[in-house]
From TrEMBL:
Gene Ontology biological-process entries: methylation; RNA processing
Domain called tRNA/rRNA methyltransferase SpoU type: residue spans: 118-252
Organism: Rugamonas aquatica
Stretches of the chain forming a coiled coil according to its record: none
Name this protein carries in UniProt: RNA methyltransferase
GO molecular function terms listed in the Swiss-Prot or TrEMBL record: RNA binding; RNA methyltransferase activity
Pfam family for this entry, one: SpoU_methylase
CDD domains in the cross-refs: SpoU-like_rRNA-MTase
Length: 261
């Protein structure tokens, strides 16, 4: 294990930059996974990180030491930091003191949609994006396509909200969703508060491309017009609409329900 004790260390400065800047993460093609759960999920599903970073106090934590032991047994890079330096990098308050530095996958769309997938049109809140990824993975959906205006999927907030879902999903970013829908081989469904067809009245027993839009404006008009179906989730009470992440979860698990009956 290598140890850094100076804030002026170039490697440490790079970690600080990656932790605090979306632009730096996008430019370098790397991001940070903060916390035991994300690190364990990455180890299990994706393999070794570029580097593991641990705080001095975390070396007394059995879960952290188990992770470090696995990495050192495979000659992976482990970096130790004093608590003060580690806490300046970590964005998790009262975290356990372990994070991974990983490369962020970049995928290009090369084939038409042929399986169930999630299409995010300008969904900007990282918590919403992460929750949608988590629900999609739980429902057995494996592909997610994001427009240029959507939150960066590999940001720390999205990663924490998704709870490891990234590592079982194929995530495509900066996608031309209109071109994707136009070439799609599957039914496309867009959610809209103005739709007249109920979600529950659509046959979901085949692959579906789910279109979800901006938290305030919804799916863009051009995409709405291209969708096979525009659907609404009926609800009771005085609230105007569902949160987009809640809406997505209802849609995914209605598809699961129909495929299990």
């Amino acid at each position: 294990m290598k140890t850094i004790t100076s804030r002026d260390n170039a490697q440490y400065k790079e970690l600080v930059k990656l932790a605090g800047s979306s632009q730096a993460r996008r430019k370098s093609g790397r991001t940070l996974l903060d916390g035991v759960h994300l690190c364990q999920a990455f180890l299990q599903l994706r393999g070794l990180p570029e580097q593991c970073v641990v705080s001095e106090s975390a070396l007394h934590n059995p879960e952290v030491m188990d992770i470090v032991g696995q990495l050192e047994a495979q000659h992976a890079h482990v970096l130790g930091l004093p608590d003060a330096l580690y806490n300046a990098v970590s964005q998790v308050e009262h975290g356990v003191g372990v994070m991974f530095l990983i490369e962020t996958p970049e995928r290009a769309v090369t084939e038409p949609l042929a399986v169930s997938a999630v299409l995010l049109d300008n969904v900007q809140d990282p918590g919403n994006v992460g929750s949608i990824l988590r629900s999609a993975a739980a429902a057995g959906i494996t592909q997610v396509y994001c427009s240029a205006g959507s939150a960066f999927c590999w940001s720390p907030k999205v990663l924490r909200a998704a709870m490891g879902a990234h590592f079982v999903l194929e995530i495509f970013e900066n996608v031309d969703l209109a071109a994707l829908v136009a070439a799609s081989k599957v039914t496309s469904l867009a959610t809209s508060g103005y739709a007249t067809q109920r979600l529950y009245d659509v046959d979901l027993r085949q692959p579906v491309a789910w279109l979800f839009g901006h938290e305030g404006q919804g799916v863009a008009d051009d995409l709405l017009s291209m969708a096979t179906h525009q659907v609404v989730i009926p609800h009771l009470g005085q609230v105007e609409s569902l949160n987009v992440a809640a809406c997505a979860a209802v849609c995914f698990f209605e598809q699961v329900r129909q495929n299990q009956t």
